[in-house]
Structure formats: C-alpha cells, structure tokens
Design brief:
- The protein has two domains: 2-185 and 303-332, Rossmann fold; 209-296, Tyrosyl-Transfer RNA Synthetase.
- Helix content is 56%, strand content 7%.
- The chain contains 14 helices and five strands.
Length: 338
C-alpha cells in the first residue's frame, strides 16, 4: 500500500517533539497544513521521541505524551489510511542513518546551529552530545524517506538547510542516493505568537501556560487566556504587526480559524473594541477545537486501536526506511549478504 502511495504521490515528512502540550501555534503552523497537503502528498508524520530525550524526561510522562501527540495528529485530521503516523523510536533506521550522517557533518556546521545555543542556555546542567548532533538526526528523519517537501517553521529553516547540504554532500561523494528536499512554509498563519509576549512565537513548552492555547485546554480556560491576551492601549481595531503585535496576533488567529481575510475581520470589528473581539475569538477557538477534542478522547479511550495504528505505521516506515539505508550501506562500503 505504501509503495503505491509513494510512487503515485510526492512525499512529505514532518514531526513534532513530544514535549509540553501541543498548542494552537502547532496546529495553525503545522498540523492544519498537514491535513490540507494529504490530498496531494503521501505524508510521513512522526512523533520524534528520540529528539525529546536531548532534555531529561520523566519516562512515564514521555510515554503518555508521545501517545497523546499521536492521537492528536489523528484527531486533527491526519488520515492513517492515507499517511503513516509513528514513533521515531520504533524505527531504528533513524538512529543508524543519523550516525552515518554524523560522520559526514562538519563540526563548524553544528557550531552554527542557533537552536543548540538557545537550548544550551536553558539546560546548562545537561549540555549533551545528543543536543549538539540533533540536526544530523533530523536530517536522517527526512532523508530516509526521500522526502520531496518538508513543512518547516522559521526556527527549523537552518536545520533543513543543513539537511539539504548533507544530502548534496553524500550524493557528490558517494553517487546520487538522497533526494534533496524542498521547504514548505505556509503563505499565512504560519507564525502564531505568544498571548502574553507577542514578540515571541507561541511555544508548546512555554513555562507560562497563559502564553499559549493548548489544543486540549478546557473551554473555560481558553476563554480566560484570550480575555487576558495582551493587546495595547489603542482603541481601534487595525493590523500592525510591528507597532501593535498583540492585536495583530489575535487578528491572525481569527483570520486563520474563521477562514476570513484579515481586512474582513477588521471591518467586522470596526468600532466594537477589543472586548468584543476577544469574546468572539475565544468562542471561535472553543467551537473550532470541540470536534478535535471529542475525537481525541475517543482515540485515547481506545488505546488498542491507537497502538495498532502506530504498530502498522512503524512497520511501513521501517520498510521504506530500510530501502534507503541499504543503499547507504552499500555506498559507504559496509559488507552486505544476499
């Protein structure tokens, strides 16, 4: 089944690390686009739990979050019959290719990675080599599946550029092996900002839960967070991302979820004030997430079904990944038996 899909459709690969809580920013910036793209692409969507352990985790909590994230992928509309959804740790080819790519990645390239610098500052007690070589593992995640397209946020563009560099370097040194992937960045709504500090991106791992809307937040919590969201001292409803970032962020969220042009949202709330906009936006988010949360609860109550999807998908992923890895083994000179 997956072979026919990959032959008939271009391949898209993406994943989210199971840390914190999946937030509205993740949905708007990534998952919503995954759903749209599945009509034209064969999707490989990964819960990247190997990446998660670059920071110390509570094992029981990590297991629960990983399952929860997989269920949220499906609840968001990712069809496991048309795509594959699996845990990164269930496909050992990721780790093996990452090691081979490590041996083709230069120290200077890893030294330039801004995420390593940022995370090292936040986790000074655990600056480990996995955190340093994280980009090589991310490259393996993508190159194993001969991805045509990789949806990336602005914070991952640097890692994708390294992935492209590694693919080109390996192809040049050993002969063509990897497809060089192209980035996909949504034209609008790709960057939802923090509710309390709209100069920063909304993060699912933020220490302050008031900064983000979690996809599993209760309706009352969502309404409170939107009500408290930062705007400014003005009174008119206008879009000005530079000088009025808080209001611009709320208008962007409304535009994306309400499927309206921002100018139409502005017209709708002209003269009504921020209070009315916030109340309506809170209700819009609640109504938007209600069917998602209902589906999620169904999936989590049927763990045997959820686990069967993940096992079947992992087997498909291993089959695809091994085809690439066998080529890599042959190219680098490893002994292979028929």
């Amino acid at each position: 089944m997956e072979q026919k899909a990959t032959e008939s459709k271009p391949v898209i690969v993406s994943g989210i690390q199971p840390s914190g809580q999946l937030a509205l920013g993740n949905y708007v910036g990534a998952m919503k686009n995954w759903v749209k793209l599945q009509a034209d692409y064969f999707g490989i969507y990964i819960v990247v739990d190997l990446h998660a352990i670059t920071v110390r985790q509570n094992p029981a909590e990590l297991r629960q979050r990983a399952l929860s994230f997989a269920a949220q992928y499906i609840a968001a509309g990712i069809d496991p019959e048309k795509n594959i959804i699996f845990m990164q740790s269930h496909v050992p080819q990721h780790s093996e290719l990452a090691w081979i790519l490590n041996c083709n990645t230069y120290m200077g390239e890893l030294n330039r990675m801004t995420q390593f610098k940022d995370k090292s500052t936040k986790h000074e007690d655990n600056i480990n080599s996995g955190l340093y070589t994280y980009p090589s593992l991310m490259a393996a995640d993508i190159l194993l599946y001969q991805a045509d397209l990789v949806p990336v946020g602005h914070d991952q563009k640097q890692h994708l550029e390294l992935t492209r560099t590694l693919a080109q370097r390996f192809n040049h040194y050993y002969s063509p092996t990897f497809k060089v992937p192209e980035p996909y960045i949504a034209a609008s709504g790709a960057r939802i900002m923090s509710l309390q500090d709209p100069t920063k991106k909304m993060s699912k791992s933020d220490d302050n839960p008031n900064n983000y809307i979690a996809l599993l937040d209760e309706p009352s919590v969502i309404l409170k967070k939107i009500k408290r969201a930062v705007t400014d001292s003005g009174t008119s409803v206008t879009y000005d991302a530079k000088n009025r970032p808080g209001l611009a962020n709320l208008l962007t969220i409304y535009s994306v979820l309400g499927e309206m042009a921002i100018d139409d949202v502005i017209t709708q709330y002209d003269g009504k004030g921020f209070g009315v906009l916030k109340e309506d936006l809170g209700n819009l988010i609640v109504n938007y997430l209600t069917p998602f949360q209902r589906k999620y609860k169904e999936l989590m109550s049927e763990k045997n079904y959820l686990e069967s999807i993940l096992k079947e998908s992992a087997a498909k992923a291993q089959h695809i990944a091994q085809r690439t890895l066998s080529k890599v083994h042959r190219k680098v000179g490893f002994v292979q038996f028929k």
